[in-house]
Design goal:
- The chain is an alpha/beta fold.
- It has two domains: 10-141, Rossmann fold (3-Layer(aba) Sandwich); 150-225, Orthogonal Bundle (Arc Repressor Mutant, subunit A).
- The protein is built from seven helices and seven strands, in the order ββαβαβαβααααββ.
- The strands form two sheets. It has a five-stranded parallel beta sheet, sandwiched between helices. A two-stranded antiparallel ribbon has the order 6-7.
- It starts with 9 loop residues before the first strand and ends in a 14-residue tail after the last strand.
């Protein structure tokens, strides 16, 4: 895909779950705003939605219905990938203090997607609301994971995961694939790790994704037909 060097609009992806409860000050008419949230933050989201409408920005509301501590990260990553395909000339801004998004930003930039991550602290506008945002930031920064780290994900790791998927049968839905990879990694893997593996499986040509459907690209799904990356 050839990406335009001219940025038309900005797409903001707000990690409301981790305290992104204010609109960035540089939101303008025609920009897109993705709000990823749980029902607990519904009132904050409604307020931001109204302000976005007043500015003339488009709002996408994604309430989290998925289980797990990384559900918000998973939805945010999915929206990032989906919108980057639809609006390749946009500049994408992830508003979150979760350090786990660094790998996603690096990977996206390697694909010539214009993007950045902004810490939530830069959005705090008042002491009262700032307390809620800071609590979210601290919660995000205090998360620790056992086992594989997002920086450990490379072609060899993806190949090994793919071999296990072929032995057990590659799921044909995105949710099924996510859960299968999580299971292969021992459950409880960071959402960013699983998302990066899925992205790399697509880049390596092992699978393609059409909407919510996963299509294996290796004929017959045979492990013998897979070449190990060098």
């Amino acid at each position: 895909m050839v990406r335009s060097s001219v940025t038309l609009h900005k797409t903001f992806l707000l990690d409301v779950e981790n305290g992104a409860i204010h609109l960035p000050e540089d939101v303008k008419k025609g920009d897109r705003i993705v709000l990823v949230f749980s029902p607990h933050y519904k009132e904050w989201v409604e307020t931001m939605h109204v302000k976005a409408d007043q500015i003339g920005a488009f709002t996408i509301l994604r309430q989290i219905d998925l289980p797990g501590p990384d559900a918000a990260d998973r939805v945010l990553c999915w929206e990032f990938g989906r919108l980057a395909t639809m609006f390749p000339a946009d500049h994408f801004i992830i508003v979150s203090s979760d350090k786990g998004f660094a790998a996603l930003i690096d990977h996206a930039q390697s694909l010539r997607i214009s993007c950045e991550q902004r810490p939530i602290q830069s959005l705090v506008r008042s002491a009262e609301n700032g307390n809620s945002a800071r609590r979210g930031c601290l919660r995000a920064q205090s998360v620790s994971y056992r086992g594989i780290n997002v920086n450990d994900v490379d072609k060899t790791v993806c190949w090994k995961v793919w071999v296990r998927l072929c032995k057990s049968g590659c799921p044909r839905t995105l949710d099924g694939l996510y859960n299968a990879i999580d299971s292969n990694l021992g459950h409880g893997a960071p959402g960013m790790v699983v998302s990066k593996i899925i992205s790399m499986l697509v880049d390596l040509g092992f699978i393609s994704i059409c909407g919510e459907q996963v299509v294996p690209q290796v004929e017959g799904g045979s492990v013998l037909q897979i070449n190990k990356p060098r």
